[in-house]
Design brief:
The chain is an alpha+beta fold. Helix content is 31%, strand content 25%. The longest helix is centred in the first third of the chain and has 22 residues. It is globular and about 55 Å long.
Length: 325
C-alpha cells in the first residue's frame, strides 16, 4: 500500500504537467512541506527541549509571543533564504514585510502565519500553519509592499495549511482543486491521503467562541440560533486551522465575527482569512466577512484584520439570505 501512495513531490510534478503550473511554484510548496517536517519534530518535543512558554514579547499584531512562534517564523525565513523563489514575505510575527530576494527573476510573494493557535502549545492542543502565494508584480530589482503584497485573494496562485494534530496533514491548492497529504514519519514523506477534497454542503458542526455571542451583530446571532435549532453540534478548539479543517472534511462552519472591541474582526486577512478562503472555495465551500466575499477584500495594511465566516455552502447561502432579510 505504501509503495503505491503518491508523495507530495510526485503530485506536484503531475500538477505541473496537467495544468502547466510553473516548476518554481511546485518547489515552493515542496519547501513548505519541508518546514512542516521540521515544525512537526519541534512541536512534538517542545516540552523536552525548553520550547514551551512565552518569550516575553508581543508580536506585530499584539498577541503574546511563544517560543515556538519565534522558532517557526525563523524556520520559514531560513527555508526560503537564497532559494530564488520568494522575493518578499509577510508574516504574523514580523512587524513589516521582509524583502528576501528582490532580484529581477525571483517570482513569488509569500504571506504566512507560521504557527496558528499558539495558545494551545502548552496544553498540547492542535496547531497549524497557513500560507498564501502570490505572483510577484515588480520585476525591476525592487519589491513593493503596495504592489506585491497588498492584494486581494482573487490574485492568489496557491494556498495551503498544515495541521499539527494526531497526525501532520498538509492541505493545498494551486487553483485546480484541493488535496490533502499526511506525513508518514517513518518515511519522512507527505503521502496523498485526501484526494479531491469537497466541503460537504450541509453543516454537521459549527465552531465559534460563544462567550462573545451577546456582542455579535444580530444577523450573526440569528445564524447561531438557527444552527442550534438544527441541532448542529458545537466544536471549538481555539485553533483556526483545526476548526476549518473539520468543516472541510465533515461539513461545518467556522465563525469569528466582529465585536465592539474588535470592530474589524480579529483574524488577519492576508495570511489567515484569504488563504483559507481560497482553499475552501476551491473545495466547493464559501468564505465571507460579515457582509462580502473574503477574496474580494482589498487589504490596506499587512496586518489588516477581518471577520470570517467560512465553511459549508448551504449554511453560508442561508447566512446571505439572513443579511438581505
Amino acid at each position: 500500500m505504501i509503495t503505491q501512495a503518491m508523495t507530495l513531490d510526485r503530485y506536484l510534478w503531475q500538477q505541473q504537467k496537467a495544468f502547466n503550473i510553473p516548476v518554481e511554484l511546485s518547489i515552493l510548496i515542496s519547501q513548505i512541506g519541508y518546514t512542516a517536517k521540521i515544525l512537526t519534530r519541534e512541536i512534538s518535543r517542545a516540552a523536552l527541549v525548553g520550547q514551551l512558554g512565552l518569550v516575553g514579547d508581543k508580536n506585530a499584531t499584539g498577541d503574546a509571543q511563544k517560543k515556538l512562534d519565534v522558532f517557526s517564523n525563523q524556520t520559514i525565513i531560513e527555508a526560503f533564504s537564497d532559494t530564488g523563489l520568494v522575493a518578499a514575505l509577510a508574516s504574523e510575527e514580523l512587524e513589516m514585510a521582509k524583502f528576501m530576494d528582490c532580484r529581477n527573476h525571483t517570482p513569488y510573494v509569500l504571506c504566512i502565519d507560521p504557527l496558528d493557535g499558539s495558545s494551545n502549545i502548552d496544553s498540547s492542543g492542535a496547531l497549524g500553519t497557513i500560507f498564501g502565494v502570490y505572483q510577484r508584480k515588480t520585476y525591476n530589482g525592487c519589491c513593493s509592499v503596495e504592489q506585491d503584497i497588498l492584494r486581494s485573494g482573487t490574485e492568489m496562485v496557491a494556498a495551503g495549511y498544515i495541521l499539527y494534530g494526531t497526525s501532520t496533514v498538509l492541505v493545498c491548492t494551486c487553483g485546480h482543486g484541493v488535496n490533502g497529504f499526511t506525513l508518514d514519519t517513518s518515511l519522512g514523506e507527505f503521502l496523498l491521503s485526501h484526494l479531491n477534497l469537497q466541503c460537504p454542503s450541509e453543516s454537521k458542526y459549527y465552531s465559534a467562541n460563544l462567550s462573545y455571542a451577546q456582542e455579535w451583530q444580530p444577523h450573526i446571532q440569528k445564524l447561531i440560533v438557527h444552527l442550534n435549532q438544527q441541532h448542529t453540534s458545537l466544536r471549538y478548539s481555539g485553533a483556526l486551522v483545526a476548526d476549518v479543517h473539520r468543516s472541510l472534511i465533515e461539513g461545518g462552519v467556522y465563525l469569528y465575527p466582529s465585536t465592539p472591541d474588535y470592530p474589524d474582526g480579529k483574524l488577519r486577512l492576508l495570511y489567515e482569512c484569504a488563504p483559507l478562503a481560497f482553499i475552501v472555495e476551491q473545495a466547493g465551500g464559501m468564505a465571507m466577512t460579515e457582509t462580502k466575499r473574503v477574496l474580494e477584500l482589498q487589504p490596506l495594511s499587512i496586518h489588516q484584520r477581518s471577520p470570517l465566516i467560512i465553511g459549508s455552502k448551504a449554511t453560508l447561502t442561508l447566512y446571505e439570505q439572513m443579511l438581505q432579510a
